[in-house]
UniProtKB/TrEMBL annotation:
The gene is pepA. GO terms for biological process: proteolysis. Coiled coil: none annotated. This is Probable cytosol aminopeptidase. It comes from Streptomyces sp. SID12501. Its cofactor is Mn(2+).
Length: 506
């Protein structure tokens, strides 16, 4: 696990494997960013010229390595691009700092320690750099013997020292503590998403959640197949009935004695999605271990809230099942009686996420929280609409949808508000049941949101995050985002909890 510390040490005398500096893109070439003054001085004030000669421009994500000046205890300097130079009287934004720190940390995989001399104007900057570096240092190598085979990669950067930080300042210490807690829990979510489905079925996921909850003083309840049947959770049972690995519903309860508000987070946790009887076509199965990304995000967010001691009550619901075809699997045309009492005609067993979420949403609604936010890799339609780096936000309250969007943008998670057009409900009418789990082909992501809205308790504020696009990165790494599971929505949920705790949400 990568360590994060604040340091007042001078760059030349610090023992480290590398010194990281920032470089911005100026009108006439690269410009050295604040924080690297001591390094620039050691190059006789000509570090920007040297970098320019080496082809560096300061563009975002660009990395240039060069030997450290004489007298430095670190052997190399790593210059990382911050993007465009800010306008006069402006500073580098938090997301620029996060991304640059993430790129640097990823570049320095295998190193034991690196000193980051990036621009730090205040505690918030220190937190952003720390968060980006910890997320960028992430590596999933549980199934690789990197100690014996260099081809299997390098261990993550061991320690990150933030130069220019104030170790004795309460605000700086709090910023580093927050960055550490949020990043470590987000990386826990990434680990879960990346774990192969033969090792992470619903029972195994529930065990991980139980252990994390007990470690951090969170109450936990796990409903197995028998309890789900006795409780009438027809949606979760209907999805999981085709698998040899039975479904689970996990409830996580974090409470604070000073809390006056209650948030509920609900996560889709399909540990593997074959599509069921409506089998997915070839080429669409290989990454379906990521279909539990919503549940992973909810687990991480609840634990982070507990670690941060936020003055808000947070309940997490993990709807866990494996969607498999078999002789016992739910068939297209079957009718399920949901936990709410509503009946659903299943027209497509590959539209299973909304079924498990429906039961969990109704269970969450029974506790009358101030707001519910569900998170799910729900529809390919949302990817068609917004691409693979932006998630969609739907809600039954426009102001709350806007608040969620603002929180997402603040923490650096690209998102976009989407509508819930009532005319699309007609497509889900069923001659057999109260509602069908499919509707019109066009606007499929919105149809799914409308379906979920039917299972939110009356008068409860609710938002739905469809993270199908950004939850799993099949391309190369960028910024602080690795290949594979990304942990999308964790930071949005944590920020919503923080805002609720101080009364600034809605």
């Amino acid at each position: 696990m990568t360590a994060l510390t604040l340091s007042t040490a001078a760059a030349p005398g610090l023992r480290a494997d590398a010194i990281v500096v920032g470089v911005a893109k100026g009108g006439k070439g690269p410009v050295i960013a604040p924080g690297a003054e001591a390094v620039d001085k050691a190059y006789d004030g000509k570090l920007a010229d040297v970098l320019g000669t080496l082809g560096a421009s300061g563009a975002e994500g660009e990395v240039t390595k060069l030997p450290a000046p004489a007298g430095f205890k670190a052997p190399i300097v790593v210059a990382v691009g911050l993007g465009a130079l800010p306008e006069k009287d402006e500073t580098f934004g938090a997301e620029s700092l996060r991304r640059a720190a993430g790129v640097a940390a990823r570049t320095l995989a295998g190193a034991k320690k690196a000193a980051f001399a990036l621009p730090i104007e205040d505690a918030a900057d220190a937190g952003a750099i720390g968060e980006g570096a910890l997320l960028g240092a992430y590596s999933f190598d549980a199934y690789k013997d990197i100690g014996k085979d260099a081809k299997n990669g390098k261990a993550p950067l061991g320690e990150i020292a933030l130069l220019g930080g104030k170790p004795r300042d309460a605000a700086y210490k709090a910023a580093v503590a927050r960055a550490t807690a949020v990043s470590e829990e987000l990386n826990r979510a990434r680990d879960l998403i990346n774990t192969p489905p033969n090792d992470l079925n619903p029972e195994a996921f529930a065990a991980v959640a139980q252990a994390a909850a007990e470690e951090h003083g969170i109450k936990v309840q796990v409903l197995d197949e028998k309890a789900l049947e006795e409780g009438g959770y027809g949606g979760i049972l209907g999805v999981g009935i085709g698998s040899a690995a039975g479904p689970r519903l996990v409830k996580l309860t974090y409470t604070h004695e000073a809390a006056s508000k209650h948030l509920a987070f609900v996560g889709k946790g399909i540990t593997y999605d074959s599509g069921g009887i409506s089998l997915k076509p070839a080429g669409h199965n290989e990454t379906m271990k990521c279909d539990m990304s919503g549940a992973a995000a909810v687990l991480a967010a609840v634990v982070a809230a507990a670690r941060l001691g936020l003055e808000v009550n947070v309940t997490g619901w993990l709807a866990l099942a494996e969607n498999m075809p078999s002789g016992t699997a739910t068939r297209p045309g079957d009718v399920l009686r949901m936990y709410s009492g509503k009946t659903v005609e299943v027209l497509n067993t590959d539209a299973e996420g909304r079924l498990v979420l429906a039961d969990a949403l109704w269970a969450a609604s029974a506790e009358k929280p101030d707001a519910i936010v569900d998170v799910a890799t729900l529809t390919g339609a949302m990817m068609l609409a917004l691409g693979n780096r932006t998630y969609g936000i739907m809600a039954n309250d426009d102001a709350f949808r806007s608040a969620v969007h603002e929180a997402a943008e603040e923490v650096g998670e690209p998102a976009w508000p989407m509508p819930l057009p009532d005319h699309l409900k007609k497509g889900m009418e069923s001659p057999t049941a109260d509602i069908a789990n499919m509707g019109e082909r066009y606007g499929g992501g919105l149809v799914a949101g409308l379906f979920l809205r039917e299972f939110v308790g009356e008068g409860i504020t609710w938002a739905h995050l469809d993270i199908a696009g950004p939850a799993y990165n099949e391309g190369g790494p960028f910024g602080y985002t690795p290949k594979g599971g990304t942990g999308t929505a964790v930071r949005t949920l944590v920020r919503l909890a923080e805002l609720t705790a101080v009364g600034d949400l809605g």
